[in-house]
Amino acid sequence: MSHLLSVYKGYFRTSLAVQFQYRAAMFIWLLGAIMEPLVYLVVWRTVALQQGGSVGGYDVGGFAAYYLTMMLVNHFTFSWIMWEYDYRIRSGEFSSLLLKPVHPIHSDMADNWAYKLFTLTLYVPVAIGLAWLFRPTWNVEGWALLVLPVALILAFLTRFFLDWSLAMSAFWTTRVQAINQAYFVAMLFFSGRLAPLTLFPPWFQRIADFLPFRWVMAFPVELALGRLTPGQALIGFGVQLGWMAAGLLLLNLVYRAGIRRYAAFGG
Amino acid sequence: MRRLEADVHLWQIFRSYLRVGLLTEMEYRINFWINLIQSLLSAAVALGALAVVFGQTDNLGGWTPAEMIALLGVYYIIGALIRVIIRPSMTQFMEDVRKGTLDFTLVKPADAQWLISVQKVEIWQLMDLVIGIGLLGLALQRMGERVGLQQAFIFGVTLLAGGLIVYSFWLILSTFAFWFVRVDNIQVIFTSLYEAGRWPITIYPGWLRMMLTFLVPVAFATTVPAQAFTGRLEPGLMLGALALAAFMLIVARLFWRYGLRAYSGASA
Asked: Which of A17, A206, B36, B193 registers the highest number of CB atoms within 10 A of its CB?
C-alpha cells in the first residue's frame, strides 16, 4: 500500500509538471466544460420565468444552483480516458505501459487528479463569477454537506471505472468515436445534465433509476442542494456502491480480455 | 473580364480539391456509415433536447417549436460548412506552418489565402448539410406557411453572410499560428461557443449576448439566418449582417497578409 502511495506521488508530480507546460490548452478545453451547463442554465431559467417562476420544482435561483453544482460535480467526476486509449493502442504506446510493474490505471488516475487540481485555479473564480451573475439559491442541509464528499468520491470512482472499461473498447475496434458518442448521449440525458430529472416524464425517470448515470451526477448534485431526505440519500449511497462494484468487475474483465487480444496483435 | 477569369480559376481550384477529397474518402467507405450514425445521433439529441424543453412550455423566449427546428437546421448547415471545409483546411494549414510545409502552398501560382482555405475537404461530413436541410423542411411543414421569394432571398443572403463571418473569424484565429506555433487548440474556442448557437441568442443575458454577437460572432451565424427563415428578421439586420461579413472578410484578409510576413519558412 505504501508502495502504491509513493508510485502515485511520483506520477502525480510528473503529471502536474506536464500539464503546466500545456496550461493554455488546458484552459481552452475548460471553456467547453463551462459552456454546456451555462447554456442549459440559461435555457431553463428562461422556461422558468415564462412559466410563472418555476418548473419541475426549480425556480430561477434553483436552476442556477443546480447547474453551478452540476458543473463542479462534472469537473470532479469526469475523465477523458476513452479518447486516449484509441491512440495508445493503435500507436503501440500501450506496450510500454504494460512493461511497467504497476497497473496502467494508476497513472491515468494520477493524471486525472493533477489536471483537476490544476484547473481548479480557474474553476473557482469562474464559479464565483457565475454565482454573482446568476444568483443561485441554496437550501443548505448540514448533514447532506457532511456526507457529500462520500457521494462525490463514489461517483468519481464509478465513473472512472466505467469510462476506463469503455476505453478498452479500443482493443476491439478502431471506431471508438461512435461508441464514445453513444455513451455521451446516454450520459447527457440520463444523468441530469440536460435538465433536472424531475422535468422528464415518469417512465423516463424509471429508466434513469436503472442506469448508472444519474447516480454519478444528479444524485450528488441533489444531495448538495439539500433536495434529498436522509432515506433517499441512503438508497443513493447503496446504488452508488453497487455500480462502483459493477464497474470494477467490468473493468477487470474487459482489461484482461483486452490484453490477451493485444498480445495476439503483436504476434 | 480579368476579374471573371480569376473567379473561374478560384472555382477550378476548389473543384479539384473537392475531387481529391472525394477520392480520398472513397477509400474509407466505412467512414460514411460511422459519420451517418454520428450525425443522426447528434440530430436525435438536439431534437430530444427540444422535446424536453417544449414538454414544459409552448415557446422559448418567443420561439415556437417549429422556429426552433428551423434554428437547428441553420445550426447544422453552418456546422457542415465548418466541418466539411473550414476546420479540416485550417487544421492542415496550422500543421503546415508548424512543419514548414506551408512553403509548398506559397509557391503555387494562386492566391495563398484561398488555397489554404479550401485545401482539405471531408466529404462524409456533408451528412450534416443533409440533416440541416431536412430540419428546415420539417420546420417549414410545421410552420404551415409558404416562404415568399423575398423571404427566401433574405434567408439566402443572411446565411451566406453568416458563413462568411464564421470563415473570417476562423481564419483570424488560425492566422495566429504564424506567431504561436501550437494553436490547434484555439479552434476549440469557436466550437465550444458555437454550441450556444443552437439556442436563440435572445434568451442569453446581456453580457453573454454581446460576447456571442461581437466577440465570437455566433449570433450572425445561426440566430439571424433562422430569424430570416421564419420571417421575423428586422430588415435592417440583413444589411447589418452583410456589413459585418464584409468588414470581417477585410480584417481577416489584412491580418492574414500581416501574418504571412511573419512566416519564415522551413529553412529559417
From this structure: B193
What are the pLDDT digits (tens) for A215-267? 999 999 999 999 999 999 999 999 999 999 999 999 999 998 888 887 655 54
Q: Which of B35, B124, B128, B188 to mutate to test the interface with A (most CBs of A within 10 A)?
A: B188
What pLDDT score does A60 carry? 93
What is the average per-residue pLDDT within A146-169?
Answer: 94
Q: Considering CB atoms only, which of B45, B189, B207 is closest to A31? A: B189
- The Cα of B7 is separated from the nearest Cα of chain A by a number of Å equal to 38
* Nearest CA among A8, A175, A185, A19 for reference residue A102: A8
